[in-house]
Amino acid sequence: ILTYSTINSFLFLQLAAQVLDDLDDEDIGFGLVDSKKERAVAKKLGLLEVDSIYIFADDEIIEYDGELAADTLLEFLYDVIEEPVEIISNDRELKGFHHIEEDIKLMGYFKSAKSSHFTEYDDAAEEFHPLIKFFATFEAKIAKKLNLKMNEVDFYEPFMNKPVSIPGKPYIEDDIVSFIEEHDRPTLRKLEPHSMYEIWEDDINRQHIVAFAEESDPDGYEVLEILKEVAQENTENPDLSIIWIDPDDFPLMVPYWEKTFGIDLSSPQIGVVDVEDADSVWMEMDDEENMPTADELDTWIRRRDVWNNQPW
Q: Where does the UniProt annotation place the signal sequence (predicted)?
């Protein structure tokens, strides 16, 4: 693991020490590349962004775009260590697969791990590991429950009821990679600590539609279900991208968000945010009344291109 940085090396080494303390059984090392003194080294290694952390795993370079916290980085590293494709062999594992709804995921059906088609799939998985979840089954009964044909791969967008089959089977690695790259901005995404900067920087015309909602709170859960309904109705719209933030995942950020946006995160909030200057407009919601319906939220979003004054 290398950081290409101008930041205080002590802070990075402190973070590294905390992570390594929990990874004493793993063969992992940390290094620091000074962006002022070692630009040639950074260029040779393919380090492009200053103040970033890069993970070298086998032949892949993975940029860590998440929270600089030991527990978050540690969890991310454990994901990196795992195999890029998780095999589903029984109903219990299939149930676990279905419970994953917050992430992009793919499922493929292949004859065996020795299949050349599975090899192409596995190679594609390495390109996106661990940020996109790849699954596969070699069991006909599992494939039947998923309506998968041999050598077919389904793409699941977060929070959508049905997957999309990648066209053109059997595939080579580039077919799968290209499809994912064309569909890697879901209509509804959850801001996760391990990828928060990557998601926040992936804006549309400088804007994000942002929804703060605690999933564990009844009102927050209701808002989340409404967001899912709106996303499902607009999944074909490339200009709609909603970011769901659960304040429980970012307790230290709550005071900053409340001050910056002028909102109270003790109840759900939905707004449009300019990512450059943090200007924002928020939907009026009375936490003592019912939450907005999906139709009301859809209508509000369509009217909220507040800077360009153009509906999407």
A: 1-17
Q: Give the CATH number, domain containing residue 256.
A: 3.40.30.10
Range of the domain at 136: 85-182
Task: Tell which of 120, 147, 182 closes a domain.
Answer: 182
pLDDT in tens, 49-106: 777 788 888 778 888 888 888 889 889 988 998 999 999 999 999 999 999 999 999 9
Q: Are the C-beta atoms of 230 and 294 separated by less than 8 Å?
A: yes
**195 shares its domain with 283:** yes
Q: Give residue-wise pLDDT tens across range 216-228.
A: 999 999 999 999 9
Rg (the chain; Cα; Å): 21
Same domain for 146 and 76, yes or no, is no
